[in-house]
Amino acid sequence: MKKFINNRNFLLGMLVFLLNYSCTEPLELAPISSIGANSFWQSEQDATGGVIGMYNQFRNLAARSLFYMGEARSEVMGHGIQNADFRQKYFENDMNEGNADLDWLQAYRVINYANLVLENVPEISFPNEDKKNDLLAQAYTMRAFVYFVLAKTWGDIPLVTEPVEGYDAQTTFQERVAVSAVFDLIKSDLDEAINLFPTNEFPSGRAMWSKPAANALKGDVYLWTGKTMGGGEADFTTALSALNDAKSANLSLLDDYSRIFDFDNKGNQEIIFAVHFSDFESSNNMYSDMYINALDIRDTYDQQTLETIGTPGGFNWWAPSATMRNQFTEEDSRKSASFLEIYSNEEENTFITSIVLKGNGYSEGGTRRFLDDIVIYRYAELLLLIAEAKNALGQDPSPEINLVRSRAYGDDFPMYEFTNGSQSENDEAILQERLFELAFEGKRWWDLVRFNAAFDKVPSLQGKAGQNHLLLWPISLETISLNSKITQNPGYEQ
């Protein structure tokens, strides 16, 4: 018996190793045949280990890439003190197939492990069937979310629904399929997940997919297809229904906006789903690229600025742009909780840079650790998604918008209370409210695309209306060179 337990522990260790091992090819889906169904996927413990591995891979994707894809190309970010380096081409929107360095490798690794769970877990006997269904529901939701990200970023993409356990060309090298087919799978996966989740409750820490999170994602998906793919009223109706189902869960707005993101307040009642970061489990996430290093602290900064910075850390590779910062009013409590403008306290009070305070982690032993959870969905966004769906259906979005504004403006709320206007006026107000509420949470670029506003609001895209290929990303030359079936997005060919 002891030998059997040791063998199983070895197999579990091997799985975790493979789940965390880094591949080198953009569509290389690492084989796992050495610990396939006959040797590993035998028990509830194995299934749980496989799902945990899926989340480990997702954390690698979320650490930076989700922000690059979801916000970096918007008007939110600009130059910091350091050289913006590869990030500059994002906010200046001058990417091409030659300088495209973001690929879909890690996303497909997450998908592959979701596929492994979906193929193998149904054959495992569980003492409690609800636990099995919950694990399967999480895998379906994860696959739906990652494909949603890929489809919004690149459009047509390879569609892989079975685990790749070898290197034969038929399974490893896939052609791109129409984005409509990808969304068919996304919607099907979400329906499967929502039917499988045994309860409408959140797991401890709210760092795993749940039924409310799946419904929030479903609403997000149907708003996207309703607005960008011609889904119209039918999709908006489905979105609103799913979002209202999510709203029925144990959710509320925190009184203090700044406390949503604090390291010591993870899994709070506003969180619907977040990616868990913790010491000894992961390295600093994207927020370390938006703070300020000790070498850049000057004795000309005033005391309040120094106290707000606290322990320096990371680097100011890029920073909140003036275009974004100047849209906030002083009465909005989200301003001081989201970013800090730094000036040199000299005669001319020279502007130096700005830093992101949301996600700034914690200090320990004179070191700042950027390990706040990355929030995927939270209640305030859910309210704004409901407002968006209601407005698309000709309904009054005021209640949801005003719930968000009431917290943001406090005693000054009467000055900013929202009043229902025309559909286009409401859409503009909702889009603007999402900027204030969700800045630096990886949402803005996709919001601009969904609201058809990218060419109006992003300075580097103004004057380029009609060049719609710029709404997608180029596929890296490395990706194309490694898979002859992959073709470049139109408009990016050299």
Automatic annotation (TrEMBL):
Annotated localization: Cell outer membrane
CDD domains linked to this entry: SusD (cd08977)
Domain RagB/SusD, residue spans: 372-492
Residue intervals of the SusD-like N-terminal domain: 81-223
Matching Pfam families: SusD-like_3, SusD_RagB
InterPro entries: SusD-like_N, SusD_RagB_dom, TPR-like_helical_dom_sf
Keywords carried by this UniProt record: Cell outer membrane, Membrane, Signal
SUPFAM superfamilies (UniProt xref): TPR-like
The family this protein is said to belong to: Belongs to the SusD family.
Name assigned to this protein: RagB/SusD family nutrient uptake outer membrane protein
